[in-house]
Design brief:
By secondary structure, the protein is of the alpha+beta class. The protein is built from four helices and 16 strands. The strands form six sheets. The protein has a four-stranded antiparallel sheet with strand order 9-10-14-13, with helices on both faces. The chain has a four-stranded antiparallel sheet with strand order 12-11-15-16. The chain has a two-stranded antiparallel ribbon with strand order 1-2.
């Protein structure tokens, strides 16, 4: 979704044979026995479901890979709805922001270009944060992340929008650096990455309800000058 991809291509769904190479696929009589490898060094690639007969099902049984693809489609729909909602709020307050910065704040710890961080905790945390942002944007606070920046030198900056009826806090402290903007405020929060573990924990109180959004920002960042490195 971040790269604007709107399709999902899966090259095959029912390759149950074992391939010693791409031109030599051998049939397998019992699909539930032996290795999950169907191509050398690849577990499960080429099939999304299993025959259900072994478990008394007259039809296919979905694989974990299929469930992961389904989860991805659901996330895509949430991201699409989030983008639509951000555009609506932006038009109302006249600030001209999109959901791109909010999405970047979620994905910064998951991948860099085509290199993926396979930490499942980081992924589940980002997925939870996506749900929280979606709920916040639909709340009476009209809460949005309007800008997000990591300067690469140990500082992360958030800009947030919420309307006049909301009270916005981070780690229990009300945000005071703000500018009036279209029936609300744009808040600015700069977080120096100087602790062993750094994070934001926003709470937004509005209409008698309280909403939350949290994100891990990683560990301590130390910056050294080229001169210091040369001397060492």
């Amino acid at each position: 979704a971040q790269y604007g991809v709107t399709g999902n291509l899966f090259w095959a769904t029912d390759i149950y044979g074992f391939a010693h190479d791409v031109n030599n696929i051998q049939p397998i009589e019992e699909l539930y026995e032996g290795s999950a490898v169907r191509f050398p060094n690849v577990n499960g690639d080429g099939y999304l479901f299993y025959p259900g007969k072994k478990y008394g099902v007259d039809g296919p049984i979905g694989s974990l890979r299929l469930e992961a693809l389904r989860d991805g489609l659901e996330e895509f729909e949430i991201l699409y709805a989030l983008s639509e909602r951000y555009a609506e709020i932006s038009a109302l307050c006249g600030e001209g922001f999109t959901s791109e910065s909010a999405i970047e704040s979620l994905t910064r710890g998951l991948y860099n270009g085509t290199v993926v961080d396979t930490d499942s905790y980081a992924f589940s945390t980002a997925r939870s944060a996506l749900m929280q942002l979606s709920i916040l944007s639909e709340s009476d606070a009209d809460f949005c992340i309007t800008d997000f920046a990591d300067d690469g030198y140990g500082n992360v900056t958030y800009k947030l929008y919420a309307n006049n009826s909301a009270v916005v806090k981070n780690h229990g402290e009300e945000l005071t650096q703000k500018e009036a903007a279209g029936g609300g405020f744009v808040y600015t929060l700069k977080v120096p990455l100087e602790k062993a573990e750094n994070s934001v924990a926003f709470t937004v109180a509005v209409s008698g309800a309280e909403y939350a959004f949290g994100a891990s920002l990683g560990g301590k960042v130390s910056v050294n000058s080229a001169a210091e490195a040369s001397e060492s």
